[in-house]
Amino acid sequence: MVNIKVLGSGCPNCQRLEATVRRVVQAQGIEAQIEKVSDFAEMMKYAILATPGLVINEKLVAAGRIPSDKDITGWLAQAAGQR
Amino acid sequence: MATELTEPRARLPRADLGTYAKLAGVALAWWAAYSVIYPISQWLTYGALGVAHGSHLGESLAFFLYDVPKILLLLSGMIFLISILRTFFSPERTRALLGGKRQGIGNILAAMLGIVTPFCSCSAVPLFIGFVESGIPLGVTFSFLIAAPTINEVAVVMLYGLFGWRVAGLYIASGLIIAIVAGIVIGRLRLERYVEDFVWQLQMAQGGPQEQLTWPERIGRAWGSVKEVVGKVWPYVVVGIAVGAGIHGYVPESALAGIMGKHAWWSVPAAVVLGVPLYSNAAGVIPIVSALMEKGASLGTVLAFMMSVVGLSLPETIILRRVLKPQLIAVFIGVVALAIVITGYLFNLVM
Lengths: 83, 351
Prior knowledge:
The structure holds two protein chains of two kinds.
Chain A: E1 2-7, H1 12-28, E2 32-37, H2 40-43, E3 53-56, E4 59-63, H3 69-82
Helix pairs in contact in A: 1-3
Chain B: H1 14-48, H2 56-86, H3 91-98, H4 105-116, H5 124-133, H6 138-150, H7 153-163, H8 165-188, H9 197-201, H10 215-250, H11 257-260, H12 267-275, H13 282-294, H14 299-311, H15 314-320, H16 326-350
Helix pairs in contact in B: 1-2, 1-10, 2-7, 2-10, 4-6, 4-8, 5-6, 6-8, 6-14, 7-8, 7-13, 8-16, 10-13, 12-14, 12-16, 13-14, 14-16
């Protein structure tokens, strides 16, 4: 089970990132738990300076942009392999 | 994220070569398109549609048909270049550069970094917390937060396209000065107690993702932001230029000199009071503003209006309210608005 967190306060890009992540997870058939974090205090634990942020298994992998499907697939495959 | 290098660096991977070839093709097409839009707009208006030369309709139509593709092409090209530049900067890097800088020099640096650092006003809160938590003074943080939205690439490109490089340069310079001065003033006022308490109590981890980008990745990201920005602003450009074109063709010269000209002393503060609650992006405001100026509104008044629309927006202040107490929000708006008014007067005086 991969734990994914989308950090963002509801801006358009944050919603797009969440949609992208859900699509990739479904396409890859990865067992994942997707969580949306919109509380700033909680968000800042991951040391982001720009939203949206993407956290996979408690590790911040991207901030301030929407990564490509390919990047997300790669990170998810890596995270799934570690467990 | 950096792609794994599987072959020696000396040889370009085939995929990279493809990216460069595509880029060269797009650049060529851009240049070709830019050189034919003027003749085409003239031919369409006076040839194909048979509108009479010198008529109101002809003036408006030719203006519209030339300016819309021109601005859209300029926007795409410039946003691409600026986005490439921005891949060398990140909020993390800017924070590192600002760390340990004193007031004054810190404000100047922060305002300048505000131009090149990728920033979206929806990120204002994490950025604010991240900056002040790492010890960057409040005033320096504000210099950044004022410069970043005010001097945005869309505003600068459209000013360049519709007024020329002098006005675009003046806009950048005055944006910088406003950000620096307002930041210094806010710093001097010692308003740290008006930052929401939770900000000071946060325990924040340092660092963040460090990226090593390759050139094809930079190009890919810049292309992505061209699509995003132009995709978002083009309707504003079209509507804005349509309104501008109407004014251009139909409103008599110097009709506005009396109410928006240099000699109407109250026009600058009125423009700011009107502009602060208005929220639009630069793309929608500038074409209208350019038409107003053509009819006798003065440069200072018009720039003051634009800056208060673009730089001080209601949505951003609402977002910032999460980390700032109302007193500090009020000081922030007040100081920036005052700085814009002074700049407006200065322009009217000098130009």
